[in-house]
Design a protein that fits this description.
The complex is a heterotrimer. Chain A is an alpha/beta fold. In chain A, 47% of the residues lie in helices and 12% in strands. Chain A folds into two domains: 112 residues; 116 residues, Rossmann fold (3-Layer(aba) Sandwich). A four-stranded parallel sheet of chain A has the order 2-1-3-4, sandwiched between helices. In chain A, strand 7, helix 12 and strand 8 form a beta-alpha-beta unit. Helices cover 20% and strands 25% of the residues of chain B. Chain C has two domains: 286 residues, Rossmann fold (3-Layer(aba) Sandwich), CATH 3.40.50.10420; 66 residues, no CATH class. The relative contact order of chain C is 0.12. The chains are: A alpha/beta, B alpha/beta, C alpha/beta. At the A-C interface, helix 1, helix 2, helix 3, helix 4 and helix 8 of A face helix 1, helix 2, helix 17, helix 18 and helix 19 of C.
Amino acid sequence: MKVALFVPCYVDQFYPQVAIATLEVLEKQGVTVVYPTRQTCCGQPMANSGFEHLATGCNENFVESFADCDYIVSPSGSCVLHIKDHLHVDGAEEKTASIRQRTYELVEFLTDVLQVKTLTSRFPHRVGLHQSCHGQRGLKLSQMSELVAPPFSKTGQLLGLVEGLELVQLNRADECCGFGGTFCVAEEAVSVKMGKDRVADHQAHGAAFITGNDMSCLMHLDGILRRQNSPTKIVHVAEILNAW
Amino acid sequence: MRSTPTSQALPSTPHTATVDELTTRFETTLTGIGGNVVRVFSWHEIMEYIRGTFTSAQRIISAVPALDLPAAVTPADPHSFEDVDLVVLEPYFGVAENGAAWLTDSRMPDRALPFIAQHIALVLRVQDLVPTMQEAYARIGSEQYELGTFIAGPSKTADIEQSLVLGAHGPKSMTVFLLQLS
Amino acid sequence: MVSPSHPRQDHATLAEKFNRDEARVDWHDKTLWFIREKRDRAARTLPEWEDLREAASQIKNRVLDNLRDYLLQFEAQAQRNGVTVHWAANAEEHNQIVHRIIQQAGVTNIVKSKSMLTEECHLNDYLQEKGITVVDTDLGERIVQLAGESPSHIVLPCIHWKKEEIGELFHKHLGTPAGNADPKFLTGAAREHLRQRFMTSRVAITGVNFAVAETGEVVVCTNEGNADLGVQLADVHIACMGIEKIIPERKDLGIFLRLLARSATGQPVTTYSSHFRRPRVGQTMHIVLVDNGRSARLQEESFRNALKCIRCGACMNTCPVYRRSGGHSYHYAIAGPIGAILAPALDMKQHADLPFASTLCGSCTHVCPVKINIHEQLYDWRQVLARQGYVGGVKKLGLMGMAAVLARPRIYRWSGALGRWFMKHMPALVNNRLNPWYKQREMPAVPRQSFQEWYRQNRQQHGQQR
């Protein structure tokens, strides 16, 4: 099995440790991981702002980078969802369809494809799980509170395998943090207020760490936590799964 | 235009329940939304309750022949019912899931009465309870009423800071007599 | 009635103003979240909830597929019931029709129960100009009307008002004692005040929740009983509806009435669900069917199913942006996520900001009782608006630059490294007041190297390169 690692642009630039953890978690599962070095971005920043048509070059580059592998795995629910929903290159419909189908967010790859039942990781802390919307409602990594349907959580399932980790309950289990791509600057006031409210929920329940499947949401929450000089830290779920 | 499904995919959940279950559900639900449910076993009990409860009612109008209460003189100007303190009506059936009762113009001496009176009381036989709105419409069928209405509790509003206040524009209270004749 | 802001500011600006009083934002957010939770509890009492949503969605799809036929069937049935049916191509025609009926009745004072369609058409303003006084009889609508505002929520028109402020307003307009802010007392005062209007008004306007093609009847749902009281005490009933309010058969109401109130407020049903089929003896009844852009929308594959909306407001209550920006920040009769996909269809230029007033979190889509894909339509509107040139030049330039970089791996690597170097060595370049991120958030800490750089250093020599 050959897995290509897809590292979102902002993770590459600002959170290399998350990509490294993702790579190592996969390798620990005995997977051969390659990293196509010409990759840049999924194109979501342009598309979510209404400029899907400007993302052509970005999309072509993505297809070129990831055409040849069994699976594409990424530590970001949002970027994966964007690929799955919107990757499109004129004249390469078959290729893009195949890529869309082979692209997985890290957690769902571990639970659904590798069917991981045990982990050798340890993270003895109180942790709050931020359910990023695109991963949750888009990729269905966990059940959303809006539906009358049985609960499940793929991320929660993996965190349950981590030694010492204590998952805290939240008042609002799956409210958006307010990052929202360019929303976070275009609607700065509401974005920050949403983030502050999310952070407060985790803090009220004594979380020492806030984790999640999307570094973008966590980056936003981290910006707020650090401005507050809060002792609460953010940590990507890949880093927890890779911790010992 | 586009393909049209020939048959409608309505959930065909069989809502079966016993009279007791329906009665309890109706009572719990209606009480929860501000209605007042009184279980009675005779017409006499209803009269007793009305006499004992609506003591200051000056003008009572009833459209329930079995009760010894004044009927409306109709036709009349609907505005003339403004001073009615209590109207007593007999709906066709009640709905257990939401505490609503179904009335049509044929059970209203005047169409304004259920809405203009200060208080409303309904007499509902326990065997006339259906589980959900889906059975309710099955029961209504293609009836040719002029006005039909489901009423579930007193008129109410929560427009001021979500504080529930009973008696917005219509009746301030609704009493449902669940009648079980032996 | 005046719109909350002239000249119009965009959603972000109005939302920023709303957020200057954080305690009020918290109050607004919690009040609406409480309703979302009530909705959840109500939905969970029905194990068949998701099947009901699917059924409602399918019925509405069928309506949209056959709208013309159902409308004609409805018209014929309503006429058979002794109802006069009017067709209005747009808001202007609707207002003229309503005005003409009122003129024929020879009155200058009328009562109106809640109708989002008449808000959409600005009927009150129109009639006011013609010398006709409209009294909104829904308590929440009456409150905003007395205040000279428009509703901030389609189900809870004055959800942004505190009881103390309503006490003040009633003191000024209804002569209630100063300082009395008890909801029960204030509701009682409004009851007295509006009773007089009901008793003297000979024309009553209502909205329509559902119009049944099979029977020609219209269904109006209220908790207060204001629609019923208005109609039953009037000589003329005018029911105003958008053409999408049609449902095929009476039995379909069994599905919609199970969903509507539970989705809206978490109640099992509204207090009154009245089916108006024939006017009372001596009364006349009119139904005004309004298009106002709807049939054009029907032709647009991406946006047509916004017409399935039954106006429950659940998408507003769940929307984390709506809860923290208030209904007036949407500067349209229908606020929140559904408003943000309806408004641009009417006027793209005026409402180009609204599809961007969302994080695309998708909560709206999944509370929607008729399964409108609201967040996907928000995304699709963004594409349309950008292509048609309604997205700001600065944003466009920035994204064009970004797209150019992200399409070229070498330039991407180079500019990433350059950017990180500047952030590390000249943090004032980004940590300043011109950067909206930095205003209330710290920038991410800058790592020594990117993952690519790390990978080249640590892994590539092992031949794991593609």
